[in-house]
Amino acid sequence: MTYENILVETHGKVGVIRLNRPHALNALSAGLIEDLNKALEAFEADKGVGAIVLTGSEKAFAAGADIKEMQDKTFADVFIEDFISKWENVAKTRKPVIAAVAGFALGGGCELAMMCDFILAADTAKFGQPEIKLGVIPGAGGTQRLTRFVGKSKAMEMVLTGRMMDAAEAERAGLVSRVVPAAQLFEEALKVAATIAALSAAAVYAAKESVNRSYETTLTEGIRFERRIFHSLFATEDQKEGMKAFVEKRAAAFRNR
Ligand code: CO8
Description:
Keywords: Fatty acid metabolism, Lipid metabolism, Lyase. Its EC number is 4.2.1.17. Helices cover about 45% and strands about 15% of the residues. Helix 1 links the parallel strand 2 (about 15-20) and strand 3. It has helices at about 30-45, 65-70, 75-80, 90, 110-115, 140-150, 150-160, 165-175, 185-195, 200-215, 220-230, 235-245; strands at about 5-10, 15-20, 50-55, 60, 95-100, 105, 120, 125-130, 165, 180. The strands form 2 sheets. It has a 6-stranded mixed sheet, sandwiched between helices. It contains 12 helices and 10 strands. It is of the alpha/beta class and about 260 residues long. The chain has 2 domains: about 5-195, Alpha-Beta Complex (2-enoyl-CoA Hydratase, Chain A, domain 1); about 200-250, Lyase 2-enoyl-coa Hydratase, Chain  A, domain 2, CATH 1.10.12. The chain binds octanoyl-coenzyme A.
């Protein structure tokens, strides 16, 4: 399938989605989000894909929602269409999604990266929530997810002033998992995604669900949830194979599904 606003390819068991509106720094138009949702759905259904990389260009992961498309909308327009509600699909994807961010990740672009399971950043990456400068506030989780990532003080400063954070600051603050030289970003993201895709799919889904649970419940409930999911993995062939392979000092051959 070909798309107008994204490029899609697979590298072994890794699905890659590249945001591709170069004339607008990958601004997130309705068309782009529609393409993104379709591509995610296709990778989610594809048994040959075990992990997904979401990336942009050297200059921009995405410079936010498309301001030109949004500027004339009225309150009734955005309220009735529930503007942005369809933009959350990345966060609902069950397969791991890694954001590989170079250049600008602003507004909805930063929010989109934060919806992924983790962010690998190029040393050129710049993160920000500049919506306040447009007379609005973040609308796709920026006030909520950024605060959970970096804490109240830094999130508040960024959301209130629109200041950008560079890659080094983003790593110090815990927004990104790692920073790599820009020229190595894509290869590194593919490598990490391939590592995940080679593991037991049941264990990978369970791990993702359990870490995400920590955002939505108390510590006691989260630990109980984790323990039960941990127990359930003893029902899989991959648990038998993974532990047997360790004891036999060989690489595990997971079934992956
Ligand atoms: N929307 C539409 N067009 C854009 C956007 C955008 N967000 N960002 C850049 N462009 C366009 C520019 O208009 C320009 O087009 P043209 O050549 O036709 O004039 C082209 O991309 C190149 O941009 P610049 O010339 O401005 O490039 P610079 O290198 O000088 O500056 C910046 C780069 C700093 C990134 C600058 O473009 C900028 O400030 N962009 C806007 C950033 C912004 O405010 N983002 C927040 C948008 S609001 C939002 O995201 C609300 C969240 C909604 C939820 C989203 C859910 C996922």
